[in-house]
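Support reply, case 0932

Customer input (verbatim):
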Amino acid sequence: MGHKKRTRERPADYREDYLIVIAVEGAKTEKHYFESVTNAHRFSRFKIHVIPNIEDKSAPEYILDNLDSYKEKNGVDDKDFLYLVCDRDGWEESALAEVLSKCRKKDYNFIVSNPCFELWLLLHFKDLSDLSEEDQMNYLVNKKVNKNTRFLASQLKNIYPGIITLTLNLKKW
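Our regenerated output:
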């Protein structure tokens, strides 16, 4: 008696892969980070596309516009995942709440890094619970240390030179 050949019938709405679209506030750091994650982990059924902020307009409503534009131009459908990622620092709660409301109406996911994305990156390398309360506050307040650099960016550069330009080797993580 031979084996019966099975046919794999797939539902009409079956897709080989799904798209994850992530619109970010930064032009380089976030884009390179998410692309590094994608390259380090080959997701068989997910494709990740990052929309950087290339016009130097980092307000959450501009990031939302970038996501809307991408969706309109690229035929994203309701089975794909759309994310808006922005920092908490520098934005009033009312502005973030307004963008959150718009995201909910459009079925977008809204992620806020608090105070900023650089802290999230830093936590990959450093356990802040080992620090004094005063030092922890320095991380949360994230004041400027010079004209172009905030405290967290300077800490990242000290721990992992080149991280802001994100020459990441995620296999170490």
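We compared this against your earlier run and they match. Two observations from our side: The first helix runs from residue 29 to 40. The chain has two domains: 16-114, 117-168. Please reopen the case if you see a mismatch on your end.
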